[in-house]
């Protein structure tokens, strides 16, 4: 029975198929226009198994990756008419990664588009040098990799972006005398890297430049020793370095494989500091002075004297190297935080519900604190508009005063209101509504006086976009926030704290719409460039820090540029030369 039923179903299906609409039968479908790419290596032979990247001019355009077959060819349905860049990549594992590119204009039509890309023979002068260990002996058999710092494409063009940033790489192995010769295809600056059990090596070299001497330095100290003392120079006999406990009459310690020192002792403030990339196998640390500490204990009270729960408290002071863990107030308002120095003024910050206020604690042994939150008897009313005058719902606004910071968020009418303590405030848009536009809106901060019992009204309107454009390029990709652009011409800061104040009015960069538009968005985004559009012509200061630098002190790049009203200004960050300093 089941067999007859299956046969019947089969007949019904076949009848339905045969009886289907065949009005288009015999009409040939329109041929698909193809993009046919052929890539040749430096000797003119087909480049088998390479890859080609097809980059559209619009930043939000979807890119395509084409795999070359054994004949060095790849076929892909031709995209819509427009401007494109083709980048072919040639990779030989352990030797090099090269690229060649061509910009093309696809016009309307039905004929296939054929493009041939060919790698030129390597003609750049070589980079040579020697790798040695800390004892000055040559290191044989180690791989030296050189990465091109800036691509050989137009740096101010529309096609250069984080998702289409070609970077040449070439590698070589040192001989018995530790010598190497790198033969890149393109001239320019290269970052040379060595990773070996003897240590790490990193230098910058230029094709055709003098031979480089690379010394391998352990990233962490092989061994480190030192002494822990109090402010009077007396040894602290019992202390802890990291997870190791020490008891020594002279306060001495010795560690192996130390990257960071965090020293704690009962009754003292913790001290921390890195032990990175010292040019010796053993590091003799200068005396580490621990300051006597006190525990801050007390209660957080509201303006009416009632206890406040779940207020986060943190401490900061001048010269801090290791901050104590934050504390949160209990239902009774009680908290305990420390240790903090007895001989220094400490700033205690309380944070709750998008607000934060500060209280200064004078020096002294007494650690009892009553943190009374200020009475919010003034009212702040903020309205946020875009440049044409339309309201902006969902914008985050910060009102800052000497006492603290208060956060507001605009509603559907573009307005935000809240009670604040009386005082003078600087009001600024701290975050735009999502989704953020490709080019950020620029808002000038406004100052307002909030009077007790009254309402202070503020309107923040985006400035009309200017015609200035700026592009900042990093010599190596980074997943940290390393680039900062500040309006105006600024001199070198005296220290890291002053740098922090300088960076507060920093500009937001254009969104990386090219990265988010692709099918495979990276889990961790690496940045090689930041673009800034819609800037008012005038002076700007570019600051950049180096995430790959191990110190000592903070390595800072600074350059003042003057943006004209047309074109794009390009800044290439180089962590050496007159544009780079180490801050105290």
From TrEMBL:
GO terms for molecular function: carbohydrate binding. Pfam families: CarboxypepD_reg. Residues 1-19 form the signal peptide. InterPro entries: Carb-bd-like_fold. Residues 323-342 are annotated as: Disordered. This is Carboxypeptidase regulatory-like domain-containing protein. Coiled coil: none annotated. Transmembrane segments: none annotated. Keywords: Signal. Gene3D superfamilies: Carboxypeptidase-like, regulatory domain. It comes from Pyxidicoccus fallax.
């Amino acid at each position: 029975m089941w067999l007859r039923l299956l046969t019947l179903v089969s007949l019904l299906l076949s009848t339905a198929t045969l009886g289907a609409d065949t009005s288009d039968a015999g009409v040939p479908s329109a041929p698909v226009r193809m993009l046919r790419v052929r890539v040749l290596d430096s000797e003119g032979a087909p480049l088998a198994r390479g890859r080609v990247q097809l980059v559209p001019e619009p930043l939000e355009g979807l890119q395509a990756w084409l795999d070359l077959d054994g004949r060095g060819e790849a076929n892909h349905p031709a995209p819509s008419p427009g401007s494109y860049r083709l980048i072919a990549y040639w990779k030989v594992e352990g030797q090099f990664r090269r690229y060649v590119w061509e910009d093309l204009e696809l016009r309307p039509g039905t004929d296939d588009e054929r493009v041939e890309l060919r790698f030129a023979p390597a003609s750049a002068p070589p980079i040579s040098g020697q790798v040695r260990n800390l004892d000055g002996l040559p290191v044989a058999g180690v791989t030296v990799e050189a990465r091109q710092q800036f691509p050989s494409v137009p740096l101010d063009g529309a096609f250069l972006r984080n998702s289409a940033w070609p970077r040449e790489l070439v590698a070589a192995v040192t001989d018995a005398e530790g010598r190497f010769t790198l033969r890149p295809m393109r001239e320019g600056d290269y970052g040379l890297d060595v990773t070996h059990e003897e240590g790490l090596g990193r230098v910058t070299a230029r094709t055709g430049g003098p031979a480089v001497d690379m010394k391998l330095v352990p990233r962490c100290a092989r061994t480190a020793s030192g002494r822990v003392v109090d402010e009077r120079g007396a040894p602290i006999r019992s202390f802890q370095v990291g997870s190791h406990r020490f008891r020594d009459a002279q306060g001495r310690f010795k560690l192996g494989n130390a990257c960071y020192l965090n020293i704690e002792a009962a009754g003292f403030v913790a001290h921390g500091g890195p032990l990175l990339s010292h040019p010796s196998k053993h590091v003799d640390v200068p005396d580490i002075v621990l300051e006597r500490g006190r525990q801050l204990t007390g209660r957080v009270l509201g303006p009416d004297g009632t206890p406040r729960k779940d207020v986060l408290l943190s401490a900061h002071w001048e010269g801090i190297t290791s901050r104590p863990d934050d504390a949160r107030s209990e239902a009774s308002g009680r908290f305990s935080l420390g240790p903090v120095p007895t001989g220094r003024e400490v700033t205690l910050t309380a944070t709750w519900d998008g607000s934060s206020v500060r209280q200064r604690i004078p020096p002294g042994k007494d650690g009892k604190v009553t943190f009374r939150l200020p009475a919010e008897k003034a009212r702040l009313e903020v309205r946020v508009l875009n440049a044409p005058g339309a309201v902006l719902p969902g914008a985050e606004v910060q009102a800052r005063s000497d006492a603290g910071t208060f956060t507001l968020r605009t509603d559907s009418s573009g307005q935000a209101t809240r009670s604040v303590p009386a005082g003078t405030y600087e009001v600024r848009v701290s975050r735009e509504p999502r989704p953020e536009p490709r080019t950020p809106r620029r808002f000038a901060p406004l100052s307002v006086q909030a009077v007790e019992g009254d309402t202070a009204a503020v309107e923040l309107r985006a400035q009309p976009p200017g015609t200035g454009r700026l592009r900042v390029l990093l010599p190596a990709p980074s997943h940290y926030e390393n680039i900062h652009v500040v309006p105006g011409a600024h001199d070198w800061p005296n220290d890291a704290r002053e740098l922090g104040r300088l960076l507060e009015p920093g500009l937001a960069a254009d969104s990386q719409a090219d990265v988010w538009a692709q099918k495979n968005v990276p889990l961790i985004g690496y940045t090689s460039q930041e673009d800034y559009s819609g800037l008012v012509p005038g002076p700007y200061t570019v600051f950049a820090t180096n995430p790959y630098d191990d110190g000592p002190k903070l390595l800072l790049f600074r350059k003042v540029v003057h943006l004209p009203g047309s074109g794009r200004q390009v800044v290439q960050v180089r962590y050496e030369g007159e544009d780079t300093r180490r801050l105290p």
